[in-house]
Fold Adenine deaminase.
Amino acid sequence: MSDKSNVLTLGAIQELPLVDIHVHLPGTISPRTAWDLGVRNGFISIDNEHGGVSWRNGPNSLQLNAPFEHYSNIFKQPIILDNGPVNLEYNIDYQSFKSFDHIMATVQGHRHPPGGIQNESDLEFVLKRYMHDCIEQKVFYTELQQNIRIAYTIYSGLDTQEARLKLYSFLKRQIIEFAKHDIILRFIHCFNKTQASLSDSTTYNRAVEASEWLKEAHDAQPGVFVGIESAGHEKDESGWPAHLKAGYEAVRDIGLGCEAHGGEATGVEHMMDVIRMLPITRLAHGFQVIEDEKSIFEVMDRDVTLVMAPLINMKLGACLHTIADKDGHLIPKSKSHGGVKSYIDELYQHPFFKLIREYKGIKIALSSDNPYMAGRLIKESIIALAGLSSEYIFPDGTEPLRSDELVQCCLSGIDAAFCDDEIKQMYKSKLSDWIKKYRY
Ligand SMILES: [Zn+2]
């Protein structure tokens, strides 16, 4: 057990300057923001009659192949109104990636337009809300993932290249707005690598197209889009790394950052394919590396940072492949070595803890992933990992996140960030002030 000086307090966490390098922009849309977007775009109508307030589905329907019949189906029902909705919650089924993805696809705007984000002002509205969250949480540096394709939705009157260029300038202005509050914002182009994207172009072509757009963005507005990301369910073969390789290598050759998702669903084998095949310096999640110790050492040798978000893993049903030892305890073991899928029941059992404690030198950063869609804001995530949330219990004999481990995660996060060294140094000096103040 740690000595007392390593114990995190709520007060200390509240003051900690943060780095959040893995945030999906649509995941920053809180249920309340999604509701407001629905009202703005006529998916939801509010009636003020007979002294009462009620709502109904608005006149503007979703597209026929959108995952929901009505936009309001993204929320748990019934929705109670007072001066606004009082009990809004996304209708995400327990441990269901699919239901999470359906909500994401409806709100983000470009997958089945019309969705929640339809014009520049909607996107600005979403970013403003996120900026307030960053101010409150003392976020110093954040990288938001957004598909450049949103440009075709919000600037539908322009030709494709003009629309993309206009998006880069718009996002540059947002970076300036954030900087006024001492928040450094950067963007990552993230595309869905699977068939869920409903694109008629192959994954190979979309990855190459991504590299071309990133080159274009880099030339037009340097420092706005700083890297590439691909997302989507690991099970779908169309998104496997062989199809992504050419696009990723082109992005690396421009000098921009490369990150991919892996090791959160189908097992360590897929995760290692991603790491070996793509020129990535960061892998999102990657907790299934615990299934195979050799792979843990390989991740360290290859100097890949695992960008973890344990809270969203728990919500969407984090699983490991395991075998039972002679006492009946489940031990992580890859599928190829006989492991069978089993869910992780409690946060304290998340492999994050074992990895950071037993493998010195492993680089793990913490992120929010989708702060409002199944995930939590970065600060809330840290509070939960530190055992300071009543929602997540750490039983006797287990140890929540300590201050030295948290500092290590913060350093791994900024070191892996796709930004200049000057920004990294600024963060490190803020972090060292925090360490001194709280005598950690
Ligand atoms: Zn992610």
User: Anything to note?
Assistant: The chain has one domain: 4-30+97-437. The chain has a mean pLDDT of 94. The longest strand covers residues 184-192. The domain at 4-30+97-437 is CATH 3.20.20.140 (TIM Barrel).
